[in-house]
Prior knowledge:
single chain; Four Helix Bundle (Hemerythrin (Met), subunit A); 5 helices; about 65% helix; binds flavin-adenine dinucleotide; oxidoreductase; EC 1.8.3.2; FAD; disulfide bond; Sulfhydryl oxidase
Amino acid sequence: STYTECPPTREEIGTSTWSLLHSMAAWYPTSPTANDQKLMTGFMQALARFYPCTWCATDFQQNIELNPPKTETRDDLCIWLCEQHNVVNQKLGKPLFQCSIDKLDERWRKSTDPKCQK
Ligand code: FAD
């Protein structure tokens, strides 16, 4: 076979997952319905249950039990998720991200950097 693509590494799954999660938060409704909130909480719980790295998933489950998803507004969700990512960053010795809505939108929703204009 000429099929040479390899399964994703833990790091690749990590960056892909964070891209999806921060983008979902960035585009989450400003005023979500009760059902939106329920679905987003369930999504995070399912991710923590099925995340494809067993010990990452175990830690994420414990973190969201201690600090359940904040789904009442877009800003709440973006900042909650940023804090969850920082818990993992700290564990891995990576730099922490400043969790303000302006910094998060610049990174995940609407950058003003000319190199990001497509
Ligand atoms: P990533 O951490 O993947 O970050 C990608 C980009 O997000 C960064 O370049 C930066 O621009 C931006 N960013 C960084 N921090 C924040 C933040 N706080 N808020 C918003 N944006 C930010 N790996 C393990 O080895 N052990 C684990 O236990 C583990 N647990 C994980 C749990 C979850 C739920 C997820 C999604 C991933 C987990 N990972 C874990 C993977 C790990 O977090 C990284 O994705 C991986 O190490 C690759 O890191 P990276 O340096 O490429 O950047």
